[in-house]
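Title: Comparing notes on inverse folding

I've been comparing how different people in this forum approach sequence design from structure. To keep things fair, I'm posting one structure and asking everyone to reply with a full sequence. Here's the target:
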């Protein structure tokens, strides 16, 4: 066993139920994640699966509706925890920190859905907690961010709106911030799996 862990954040069916998923930056995120998972397992690294939940909300993140499950094609191995979370980051409302401490983990690899939200905030908190973090951008996915006036618009109108923040702009900002401020090493799947 190594001192490394792969954290797979919110790669769950909930996101595919939302109308904006058609504009996702990485619709094949399952394939991307599986490459990292296979690599982590081959090295003896720990793998932790996170699922975002909003119990009682009545939306796609409400476990009662059945969408809070890993996307088809992802399967935890025996002993790999699947942790529900109710916060944006993976630490605040879960036992993740305790698990990592118990396992003696000091290095994290981060991937998952919402490059700019759940993945980025988890990375920042992990760095603050003293973990060495690798952020694998091409194993994350995000969707465009509409202007506040356009949140209720149809996705085609959101994409046509020049005020919409594109997935490319979001990813560029996340990479620059995480690497430029020292929160993480920004890497690719090819780079991580070659190590």
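Reply #1:
Here's my take.
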């Amino acid at each position: 066993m190594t001192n490394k862990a792969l954290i797979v954040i919110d790669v769950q069916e909930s996101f595919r139920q939302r109308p904006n998923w058609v504009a996702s930056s990485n619709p094949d995120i399952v394939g991307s994640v599986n490459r990292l998972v296979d690599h982590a397992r081959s090295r003896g690294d720990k793998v932790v699966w996170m699922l975002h939940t909003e119990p009682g909300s009545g939306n796609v993140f409400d476990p009662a509706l059945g969408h809070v499950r890993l996307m088809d094609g992802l399967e935890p191995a025996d002993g790999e925890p699947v942790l529900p979370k109710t916060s944006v980051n993976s630490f605040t409302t879960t036992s993740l920190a305790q698990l990592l401490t118990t396992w003696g983990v000091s290095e994290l690899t981060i991937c998952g859905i919402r490059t700019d939200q759940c993945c980025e905030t988890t990375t920042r908190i992990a760095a603050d907690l003293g973990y060495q973090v690798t952020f694998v951008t091409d194993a994350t996915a995000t969707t465009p961010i509409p202007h506040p006036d356009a949140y209720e618009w149809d996705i085609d109108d959101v994409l046509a709106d020049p005020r919409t923040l594109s997935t490319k702009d979001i990813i560029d900002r996340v990479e620059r911030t995480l690497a430029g401020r020292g929160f993480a090493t920004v890497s690719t799947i090819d780079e991580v799996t070659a190590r």
